[in-house]
């Protein structure tokens, strides 16, 4: 686990051995405590940029896509709903975005188009319940809707939790626009390199958006998710720790 107290990040020249270590340990389940799929590790380490696998890459417990039990390799696409039960989790790839959905979660994907071009398409991710870690390409905008907030991002990594009256957002790196549902006219702009600005967003109260700690997600998970589509997080790519400089891996 590599957070604020361990800011000496990996130089680029040792990233590939580190990538091998993380893929082997995490996908084999030594840290997640999950059943391993060593064949997947071999494919990931050998793949070319054009060969990234799509769909479900790892799952544990009761995971459903549109109400049907999910299996390895199942694709997740527009208008699909992914749900997880207690003690369940699933990792899936959609295009160049990678998602880790934790237990007791409900994920829904839709698209919105502006201008009739690919660059005008925005992925609408609805997470009104549960916990999700996601890493995304710069090529497409994402809007993440929770019970209390909307997060607009592109080319970033983010962890989100959604409860009835409170959400949690950690923009792990990149840039984003954050609004509270109860006060949509006020937009908070976030720019981070390494978890500098986690926030709680409440449904009511005098201060709707408040500072929060970093919890329930790790840098190792971010490295593993990015590796599934041949990328690495900016705190690894740039060989330095987060310093609040706001030069994260993406622009909104």
Structural features, described:
This protein is mostly beta strands and 252 residues long. The chain has a domain at 54-216: Jelly Rolls (Sandwich), CATH 2.60.120.1440. Helix content is 14%, strand content 38%. The protein is built from four helices and 15 strands. The protein has helices at 15-27, 38-46, 219-227, 234-237; strands spanning 55-60, 63-65, 68-69, 81-84, 89-94, 97-101, 106-113, 121-135, 141-145, 149-153, 157-162, 166-180, 183-192, 199-202, 209-211. Strands 8-9-10-12-11 form a five-stranded mixed barrel. It is globular.
Question: What would a concise description of this structure say?
Answer:
It contains four helices and 15 strands.
CATH level-3 fold name of one domain: Jelly Rolls
Biggest beta-sheet profile: 5 strands, mixed, barrel
Which structural class fits the helix and strand makeup?
mainly beta
Number of strands: 15
List the helices and strands and how they pair.
Layout (H helix, E strand, L loop, with lengths): L14 H13 L10 H9 L8 E6 L2 E3 L2 E2 L11 E4 L4 E6 L2 E5 L4 E8 L7 E15 L5 E5 L3 E5 L3 E6 L3 E15 L2 E10 L6 E4 L6 E3 L7 H9 L6 H4 L15
Main attributes?
single chain, 252 residues, mainly beta, Jelly Rolls, 5-stranded mixed barrel, 15 strands, globular, disordered N terminus
């Amino acid at each position: 686990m590599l957070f604020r107290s361990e800011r000496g990040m990996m130089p680029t020249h040792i990233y590939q051995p580190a990538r091998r270590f993380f893929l082997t340990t995490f996908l084999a389940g030594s840290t997640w405590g999950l059943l391993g799929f060593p064949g997947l590790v071999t494919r990931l380490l050998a793949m070319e940029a054009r060969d990234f696998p799509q769909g479900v890459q790892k799952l544990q417990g009761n995971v459903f896509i549109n109400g049907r039990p999910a299996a390895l390799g199942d694709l997740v696409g527009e208008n699909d709903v992914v749900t997880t039960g207690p003690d369940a989790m699933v990792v899936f790839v959609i295009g160049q975005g990678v998602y880790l959905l934790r237990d007791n979660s409900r994920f829904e994907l839709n698209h919105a188009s502006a201008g009739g071009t690919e660059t005008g398409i925005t992925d609408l991710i609805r997470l009104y319940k549960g916990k999700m870690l996601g890493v995304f390409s710069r090529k497409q905008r994402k809007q993440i809707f929770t019970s209390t907030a909307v997060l607009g991002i592109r080319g970033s990594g983010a962890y989100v939790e959604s409860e009835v009256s409170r959400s949690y957002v950690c923009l792990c790196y990149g840039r984003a626009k954050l609004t509270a549902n109860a006060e949509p006219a006020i937009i908070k702009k976030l720019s981070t390199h390494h978890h500098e600005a986690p926030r709680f967003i409440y449904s009511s109260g005098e201060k709707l958006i408040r500072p929060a700690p970093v919890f329930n997600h790790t840098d190792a998970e971010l490295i593993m998710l990015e590796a599934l589509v041949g990328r690495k997080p900016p705190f690894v790519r740039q060989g330095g720790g987060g310093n609040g400089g706001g030069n994260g891996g993406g622009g909104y």
